[in-house]
């Protein structure tokens, strides 16, 4: 059941409309950074393997098989080690994920302002960010006064002033998006880790109990 829940959360994060709209964008030959999906794929793998390993543990307990319970315990140790490694990787890279996406957005925004011919889809990329995140412009006030500003890049408002007063900058929205998603991943990982620890303890207690009872 825990594996199924983890798998469900991971699949929801993987197919969430906000992240998919942004992370599937392409600017010329450059693809949007998809480092975020590495953590999602790890969760999907852990959830799927947990479901299989859980079945193995249940069957081993029903059959009172020390071999199956020992295999169950070994698989849990491996999964736990992988999850700890993934957690450390995620903690180290949590700021880098948002930073890469912001750099991708800034590059597209700059090309859209300059109307560079090699970036014909820059407008589309920028508009997708603005519409998906309900934001307008990068993390700078310079854009609001530059003569290169193009009103068609942001969601329609009655005036530029109203646009900047009512809509947050996209850097802040990108930070909020990924910090929220990473927060959910962190909660899921902690829940899985706690469940795994109890599973390992109980499987060893059961295995020892079966071994002791077989003596008599």
UniProtKB/TrEMBL annotation:
Xref: InterPro entries: Tetraspanin/Peripherin (IPR018499), Tetraspanin_animals (IPR000301), Tetraspanin_CS (IPR018503), Tetraspanin_EC2_sf (IPR008952)
GO cellular component annotations of the record: basolateral plasma membrane
Compartments in which it is found: Basolateral cell membrane; Membrane
Cross-referenced Gene3D superfamilies: Tetraspanin
TM segment ranges: 36-62, 68-92, 182-206
Domain of life: Eukaryota
Annotated Pfam families: Tetraspanin (PF00335)
Membrane topology: Multi-pass membrane protein
GO biological process: adaptive immune response; regulation of cell population proliferation
Bridged cysteine pairs (disulfide): 135-170, 136-154
GO molecular function: lipid binding
Main location: membrane
Keyword list, A-Z: Adaptive immunity, Cell membrane, Disulfide bond, Immunity, Lipid-binding, Membrane, Transmembrane, Transmembrane helix
Family from the record: Belongs to the tetraspanin (TM4SF) family.
Protein name per Swiss-Prot or TrEMBL: Tetraspanin
Organism per entry: Tauraco erythrolophus (Red-crested turaco)
């Amino acid at each position: 059941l825990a594996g199924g829940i983890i798998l469900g959360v991971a699949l929801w994060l993987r197919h969430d409309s906000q992240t998919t709209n942004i992370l599937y964008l392409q600017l010329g030959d450059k693809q949007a950074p998809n480092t975020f999906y590495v953590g999602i794929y790890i969760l999907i793998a852990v959830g799927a393997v947990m479901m299989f390993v859980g079945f193995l543990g249940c069957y081993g307990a029903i059959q009172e098989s020390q071999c199956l319970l020992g295999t169950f315990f070994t698989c849990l140790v491996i999964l736990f080690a992988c999850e700890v490694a993934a957690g450390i990787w995620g903690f180290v890279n949590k700021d880098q994920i948002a930073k890469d996406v912001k750099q991708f957005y800034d590059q597209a925004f700059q090309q859209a302002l300059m109307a560079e011919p090699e970036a014909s889809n820059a407008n589309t990329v920028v508009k997708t960010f603005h519409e998906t995140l309900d934001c307008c412009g990068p993390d700078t006030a310079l854009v609001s006064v530059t003569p290169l500003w193009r009103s068609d890049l942001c969601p329609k408002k009655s005036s530029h002033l109203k646009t900047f007063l009512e809509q947050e900058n996209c850097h802040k929205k990108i930070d909020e998006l990924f910090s929220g998603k990473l927060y959910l991943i962190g909660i899921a990982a902690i829940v899985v880790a706690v469940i795994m620890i109890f599973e390992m303890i109980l499987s060893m207690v059961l295995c020892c109990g079966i071994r002791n009872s077989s003596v008599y």
